[in-house]
Specification:
By secondary structure, the protein is mainly alpha-helical. It is built from 13 helices and no strands. Helices cover 76% and strands 0% of the residues. α4 packs antiparallel against α7. The radius of gyration is 24 Å and the shape is globular. This is Multiple sugar transport system permease protein.
Length: 296
């Protein structure tokens, strides 16, 4: 009887959050899948079923392909920059600084993660400014001419990667620190007795033990990077101030098709493609880390 009451309490306690999760998270996914099969717009009453026509149009849409290319470059750039840097900083904080200073460094690194996106992006926009930015002022000391970073087709993408990595770094460092602090110290002590150096301890103990943590950080960072919006919206404005025109990304392209061109079905097809890409890459990361664990 007691177990039945406990089960009833658990079910009643989970009923509300699970219902909200289904309504807010699960149902919109299925609704997006449904909308992607229709020529759906906000104005017209006639919303015919078109099957896979929206997806076929995506293949030949240069704007979508440009957005997909830019988003993929940014996502992998953020991943490649954030993971090694976060792991290195976490190891440095864990093994080189005392516990008293550790909290200071952790807080300092985490602040960019909680700062509002628009003010942070505006601050970085000032940093990269061609005339008044401190980056060009610093490079000018070494005789390097000023660059219009945010108006260059390549450097503007690099600027977005830097901003996204700066925001993601603090969270990744904290997660890696938690993983490092859960590694048994006896492993390091045994390695040192065998004459292992600090680098060898990090390579052969820390990195393998952190594999599940690295997988989590990698997946979370990649998903966030593929869904970037505000960074491109604020940083990559054209000379007339139109937001997000120099670096077109998928989420911005979806919003433009939905609310400016009223092509909701077409934008839903873009969202489905983005979901499929994220799911595929997430599954690929699980397989990659599992295979590495099996080989060891």
């Amino acid at each position: 009887m007691k177990k039945r009451r406990q089960l009833g309490f658990v079910i009643s306690a989970l009923a509300v959050p699970l219902t909200l999760f289904v309504l807010v998270r699960v149902m919109p996914i299925f609704e997006t899948l449904r909308l992607s099969l229709f020529k759906w717009d906000i104005i017209s009453k006639n919303k015919p079923f078109v099957g896979l026509a929206n997806f076929q149009e995506l293949v030949g849409d240069p704007l979508f392909l440009e957005a997909l290319r830019n988003t993929t470059i940014i996502a992998f750039g953020v991943l490649a920059l954030t993971i090694p840097l976060a792991l290195g900083l976490a190891a440095l904080i864990q093994h080189r600084f005392g516990s008293a200073l550790s909290g200071f460094y952790e807080t300092s690194l985490f602040i960019p993660h909680i700062v509002s996106l628009v003010p942070a992006a505006m601050a970085w926009k000032w940093v990269f400014d061609a005339q008044l930015g401190p980056l060009n002022a610093f490079l000018g000391i070494f005789g390097i001419p000023a660059q219009a970073w945010l108006f260059h087709p390549v450097w503007s993408i690099v600027c977005i990667i830097v901003l996204c990595s700066w925001q993601a770094l603090g969270y990744a460092v904290l997660i890696f620190l938690i993983g490092l602090r859960n590694i048994s110290t006896s492993l390091y002590e045994a390695a040192r007795l065998d004459g292992a150096t600090a680098w060898e301890c990090f390579r052969y103990i820390s990195i393998p033990q952190l594999r599940p943590v690295t997988l989590y950080v990698s997946v979370v960072t990649m998903i966030a990077a593929f869904n970037i919006y505000g960074q491109a919206f604020v940083l990559a404005s054209d000379s007339q101030g139109a937001p997000g025109k120099l670096v077109r990304v998928l989420v911005l392209d979806m919003l433009e098709n939905s609310f400016r061109n009223y092509r909701v079905g077409y934008a839903a097809a873009e969202a489905v493609v983005l979901l499929a890409i994220v799911l595929f890459l997430t599954a690929g990361q699980f397989v990659f880390f599992r295979d590495k664990a099996a080989r060891r």
